[in-house]
Amino acid sequence: MKLPRISEVGVNGKKVLVRAPFDVPLVGVKITDDSRIKSALPTIKYLLDNDAAIVLISKLGRPEGQRVKGLSLAPVAKHLSKLLGKKVIFCNEAIGPKAEKAKKSLKKGEVLLLENLRFYKGEEENDANFAKNLAAYCALFVFEDFPNAKNNHAGITGLSKLLPTYAGLNFADEVEHLTNFFEKPAKPLVAIVGGAKISTKIDVLKGLINKVDVLILGGGMANTALAAEGYDIGKSLYEENYLDVAEEIGRLCEDAGVELLLPDDVMVAKRVRARTRAVQKAVDEVNKNEIIVDIGPRSVAKFSEPLKFAGTIFWNGPVGIAEYKNFSLGTKAIAKIISGAKSKSIIGGGDTVAALSDGDYHFDFVSTGGGATLELVAGEKLPAVEMFRDQPLTNN
Fold first, then answer.
1. What distance in Å separates the CA atoms of residue 373 and residue 369, rounded to the nearest whole number?
2. Between 20 and 30 A from 176 (CA), which of 216, 270, 277, 369?
3. Which residues of 116-152 are buried (b: 16+ CB within 10 A; e: fewer)?
């Protein structure tokens, strides 16, 4: 799918509102992974090079309409200033008198970042007045936040109804690359899906089953599938209310002739802490007081077989609690196998990318999205993509 890019319209002297992917991991005020911020740099630099005034908006975390000190975008403004080599003005409001004054006085070549949109209930409620206040004083809207493309919110689809809307350079690349990549993928197509919950990925998994030849499950999702098969997974993260869904996924794979692979062995620990050592166990040996934290070496070897002979590999979500170094070995082993494979490979998911940030891996395409990447690949419609189909102002 080809999207109208911001580079296709004149922006000189215009105030351009940019929805940016600044939902980054923070420890205190320190940003631990800035890959999403960097993905927006080509669009921001293009606008600066063409004498636009830039108003940036984004969300961070899930404050649910409340002002949460630890979720302010102020650290992002500071970090972005370093990346751009110029001051980024920060306003601690997204709407209101301070935000209006800051936007009104913004000059070409200047960059303004407004406060976290999720501090306001109007964002998730897709409130028209909230969107109108965000759009004030701006001439164009640029969407450059692929990780949030799946949300029908005021700062996304609401703005597209008020301003001529264009795709950011990275967003357009992601959508076009992902849709083209899976139009006629080289076979066999192997998908690895990790992460915590099967409940949030039911429709996506069903959509993937219609596309893939092999489906590999890891992380908490695999735990739920193992529990559905009758294994005792101790104190591991799983969704007790979705065992029937896990069973259904298994049946659908069987009916479609898709090979479904689950771990044979796992790494377990009695607590999830940074320095805790994990122990290898077969999936039928997990004790009631143990937690599955990663896949084991036998599972890595099992998963490696289809990966070595795949024509196309799609990977979304780590296969263990990969934010802890000791529990990220399975995820890194899978990454190494994919890097050495001759197949086309694409990975997505902030947690996956973060887990691999300290290694040297090769993938054909790395998506900034998590759930959005998975949904697009599975054939789901994303509101931020669909809004371009319905955008009467795009060519103005």
1. 5
2. 216
3. bbbbbebbbebbeebbbbbbebbebbbbbbbbbbbbe
Q: Which residues on neighbouring strands pair with residue 191, listed in sequence order?
A: 215, 314
Is the pTM of the predicted complex or chain greater than 0.70?
yes
**Which amino acid is located at 81 in the chain?**
S
Tokens of 90: 């920060």
Q: Within a 13 Å sphere around the CA of 231, how many CA atoms are in the beta-carbon half? A: 24
Beta strands in 246-308 (DSSP E): 259-261, 265-269, 279-282, 291-295
pLDDT digits (tens, 9 = 90+) for 72-112: 999 999 999 999 999 999 999 999 999 999 999 999 999 99
What is each CA distance from 196 to 36, 225, 269, 320, in whole angstroms? Answer: 21, 12, 17, 9
> How far apart are the C-alpha atoms of 303 and 380, rounded to whole Å?
27
Burial class (CB in 10 A: 0-12, 13-18, 19+), 25: middle
- Identify the band that residue 227 occupies on the pLDDT scale cut at 50, 70 and 90: very high
Percent of the chain at pLDDT above 70?
98
Q: Evaluate the omega torsion of the peptide bond into residue 75 and state whether it is cis, within 30 degrees of 0.
A: no
Residues marked as catalytic: 36, 197, 350, 371
How many C-beta atoms lie closer than 10 Å to residue 385's C-beta?
Answer: 23
CA torsion sign for 12, 17, 19, 20 is positive
Q: Letter for the amino acid at 230?
A: G
| Residue 209 to residue 250: CA distance in whole angstroms | 10
